[in-house]
Amino acid sequence: MKQDKIKDEKTLISRVYEELNNNKPYRLKKLYKFVNLANKNFENIWSGWYKGQTPPKLEVDIILAFEDSQKVVDKALIIGVEVKYFKDFRGFYKGLGQILSYSVFGFDGLSLWHLFSKDVEDNKIQIFAKATEEVIKGFNLPIFYLCGRIIDEEELKLKSFAPIGNIEGNIKYFVDLMRNHITDRNNRNALLFESKPFGPNSKEIKRRRNILKIILEIP
Prior knowledge:
With 219 residues, the protein is of the alpha/beta class. 31% of the residues lie in helices and 26% in strands. It has one domain (9-215). The chain has 6 helices and 7 strands. It has a 7-stranded mixed sheet. The protein starts with 8 loop residues before the first helix and ends with a helix.
């Protein structure tokens, strides 16, 4: 009996990383996986928050840095991705809190991926995707939401249910969709902009973003 290549979330994230390294999306300059923002290298980001204490564990599954032709903040478009992998039907809210927490570190874009095993039924995934989209769109959250079923583990090909339903493509195709969506200033992290209702502390958010860039060696 043929064994699944994707056994769990960590395996899936590693496969995504491998595929994107082998087939780089347009304008992708840097790619990282399993980045722990509570690491000592990020002490300057946490300075003033947890004096004398260890900050909570916060691991970003995937970080992608693209060249930003629009230079909305600067030349970089930095996207943090939270990946959730499901072999059965579970709570649609998984990962929402985590992806929103990335905003305070100055990521330009926030993206939540709900990816399902090939064995999960389409009708169940459709219900799941609809519920998650209702929350994201209802609150106008700046999150690029990808929901799909893995139909080919070898080529990491997906059938999508969000943001576009019933579309098949490899992971690079959906990363290109994500980049195009987040390139629009209106779809970026609102905390980076003073003009946004929730951006009064944008200077501090940008400071953390600059520290993040230095540590990740993003020019």
